[in-house]
């Protein structure tokens, strides 16, 4: 890993207040009603964060997270107000700033854990932020690696039982996310179809090579990845999507890192 201590990435963890008890009060609620509420909450979160150039991930739905570089405290408060006004639940938010994404999300988690349990009836609409030592005037910097299974349509969707196609994508996602978390302090999340988005520190090309190789060795699944960098997740992610298009057009497996390496 070659992340710079003077670069900072910001992640926000959104947790529904006292959601467990709510799902069974006054008696267990219909599952599809809960699914609908969770999907609506996530859609609204993705919109809110996306309009401000962040990237949102659905996490476990009761815990969602986002890359929020450039989004200030006041704006987080506005999001909490919006949830309260539009839905039957409220949310607490932890915000973490650090030189790596996993560290930032860890800090955000600690902020919420410090003010009471997710199931605590007295914890409501907390907003707590913390920053690790990232030096003076750190640069807002996000690296997005957009991974995609090579020819998922031909090898899985059009060929295999949907149960097995699903399991294959989940297996590849788990190997990828675990490897990136353990080796590169990154946070990776499934975003749909055969796509996984990883938020990483500044990594060199060899790191992505080894990552793709690891997933191939452990699961037999071939990945391609486009990488982008920017001051916001959208800026980095957009670059990553264009780089991934080059992979699809030319057959390269890793795209965008040459430019990244030159920038470092
Ligand atoms: N969230 C998200 N999903 C995508 C994106 N691109 C594709 N998908 C999903 O991935 C599925 C497969 O599309 P592709 O990845 O283009 O298809 P493929 O068969 O793997 O083909 P190649 O990528 O060219 O190897 C689509 O049906 C979408 O569900 C993206 O940028 N974001």
Question: What's the structural blueprint in terms of helices and strands?
Answer:
Blueprint (H helix, E strand, L loop, with lengths): L6 E10 L2 H5 L7 H20 L4 E3 L5 E5 L5 H14 L4 E8 L2 H14 L12 E5 L7 E2 L1 E8 L2 H6 L4 H23 L2 E6 L2 E6 L4 H15 L3 E8 L2 H18 L3 E2 L1 H7 L1
Parallel strand pairs: 1-6, 4-5, 10-11
Antiparallel strand pairs: 1-3, 1-4, 2-3, 7-9, 7-10, 8-9
The chain binds guanosine-5'-triphosphate (GTP).
The site of guanosine-5'-triphosphate (GTP) has 14 residues, from strand 7, helix 5, strand 8 and helix 8.
Summarize the structure in words:
It is built from 9 helices and 11 strands. The model has no long low-confidence stretch (mean pLDDT 93). Helix content is 46%, strand content 24%. The longest helix has 23 residues. Bound molecules: guanosine-5'-triphosphate. The site of guanosine-5'-triphosphate (GTP) has 14 residues, from strand 7, helix 5, strand 8 and helix 8. The site of guanosine-5'-triphosphate has 14 residues, from strand 7, helix 5, strand 8 and helix 8.
Mean pLDDT: 93
Low-confidence stretches: none
State the helical fraction. 40-55%
Taking all Cα atoms into account, the compactness measure Rg is 19 Å
Order of helices and strands: EHHEEHEHEEEHHEEHEHEH
Specify the overall morphology.
Answer: globular
Identify the bound ligands: guanosine-5'-triphosphate
Total strands: the figure is: 11
What separation lies between the terminal Cα atoms?
Answer: 12 Å
Strand content: 15-25%
Helix count from the secondary structure assignment? 9
Q: What structural class do helix, strand and pairing data support?
A: alpha/beta
- How is the main sheet built? 6 strands, mixed
């Amino acid at each position: 890993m070659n992340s710079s201590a003077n670069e900072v990435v910001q992640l926000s963890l959104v947790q529904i207040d006292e959601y467990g008890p709510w799902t069974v009060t006054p008696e267990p609620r219909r599952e599809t009603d809960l699914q609908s509420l969770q999907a609506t909450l996530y859609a609204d979160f993705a919109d809110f964060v996306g309009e401000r150039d962040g990237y949102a991930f659905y996490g476990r739905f009761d815990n969602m997270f986002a890359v929020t570089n450039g989004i200030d405290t006041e704006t987080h408060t506005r999001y909490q107000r919006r949830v309260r006004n539009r839905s039957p639940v409220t949310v607490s938010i932890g915000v973490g700033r650090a030189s790596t994404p996993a560290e930032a999300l860890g800090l955000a988690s600690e902020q919420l854990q410090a003010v009471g349990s997710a199931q605590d009836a007295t914890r409501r609409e907390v907003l707590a932020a913390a920053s690790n030592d990232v030096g003076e005037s750190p640069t807002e910097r996000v690296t997005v690696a957009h991974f995609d299974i090579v020819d998922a349509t031909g090898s899985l969707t059009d060929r295999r039982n949907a149960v097995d196609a699903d399991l294959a994508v989940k297996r590849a996602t788990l190997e990828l996310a675990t490897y990136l978390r353990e080796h590169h302090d990154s946070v990776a999340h499934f975003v749909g179809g055969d796509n996984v988005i990883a938020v990483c520190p500044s990594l060199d090309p060899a790191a992505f090579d080894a990552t793709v190789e690891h997933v191939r060795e452990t699961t037999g699944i071939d990945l391609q990845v486009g990488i982008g960098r920017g001051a916001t997740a959208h800026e980095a992610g957009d670059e990553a999507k264009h780089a991934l298009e080059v992979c699809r057009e030319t057959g390269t497996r890793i795209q965008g890192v040459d430019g990244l390496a030159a920038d470092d």
